[in-house]
Amino acid sequence: MNRKQGRSSLTKRSLDKFFKNRMAVVGAIFVILFVGACIFAPLITPYDPTRLVPPDRELPPSAEHWLGTDRVGRDIFARILYGGRMSILIGVSSAIGATALGTIFGCIAGFFGGKVDRVLVTIQEFVSIFPSTLLIMLIVPFVGRSVPMMIFIFIITSWGAPMRIIRGRILSLKEEPFIESCRANGISGMSIMFHHMMPNTLGPVIVNASLNVAGFILSEAGLSYIGLGVPETVPTWGNIINAAKRLDIIQNTPMLWVAPGVAIGVFVLAINFFGDGLRDALDPTTR
User: Fold this and answer.
1) Which of 25, 64, 91, 204 is the most buried (most CB within 10 A)?
2) DSSP letters along 26-50, please?
3) pLDDT tens-place string over residues 167-192
4) Model-level pTM?
5) CATH class label, 2-282
C-alpha cells in the first residue's frame, strides 16, 4: 500500500510540475490539436488531397477552399491535413523504433559490461558516423523512395542517443542495493535488467523520444524538399513545399509554401515545448 501511495504521490508531483509550465501545456494542446486534425481530416475537409481538378487551379483562399488551391487544382488545406498524417507518422514511428532499439542495446551494454559493452559501443560509434541524409542518397538509387525505407534509415542512424542515455543509467543502477537484493533472491539477469532496471530509465528516454519526433519531421521535410524523401505522390509537409520551389509559384501562390512552413514550424515548436516540460516534470531534482 505504501508503495502504491508513493507512486501516486510521485505521479501527482510530476503532473503538477508539468501543468505549472505554461509553455509545456500550450505545446501539448497544439500537439493534440494537430494530431486530432490530421486523424479526423475526412471530417474536416471534403476534398481529396491527391485529386487533380485543373479548372480550379491556383484559386485564392475562399470560403470553399480555405487556403486556396495549387497549380493542378488540389485543395491546399486538405493537403496540409493529410500531409500532416504522413509527416507525423514518419516522425513518431522513427522515434519509437530508434528509442526501442537504443533501449534494448543500452540495457544489454550497461548490464553485462565488459566485451559486450565494448562491442555495442563500437557499433554505435561506427553507425553514428553516417548521417541519415548520406545513407538515403546512397540507397535511394537502388531501392527507390518509400516511407518504410526512410523510417528504417532514421531508426538505424538514430538509436545511438537513447542507447547512451540508457547505458549510463543502467551502469548507475547496477550499484544500487535493490539490484543486489534481486540477485540474492535468485532473480534472473534478464528479469533484473528488463523488469527492475529498465523502468527506472524511461523518464529521460521518453523525453528524448518526444524531441526526436520533431527532428525526424524536419529531416523528412528537408529530404523531400531536395527530392530524396518519400514519393511525390504521397502528401507530406515536405512534398507540399517541394511542389512550391518554382519562382512563379513563390510569387503568385505564396500560400502553397507558407501554409506547410507554418504547420511544420508550429508543430515542431509545440513538440519541443512539450518535451521540455516532460523533462522538467520527470526530473526529481527540479521543483
Assistant:
1) 91
2) HHHHHHHHHHHHHHTHHHH--S-TT
3) 888 888 887 777 777 777 777 777 77
4) 0.86
5) mainly alpha
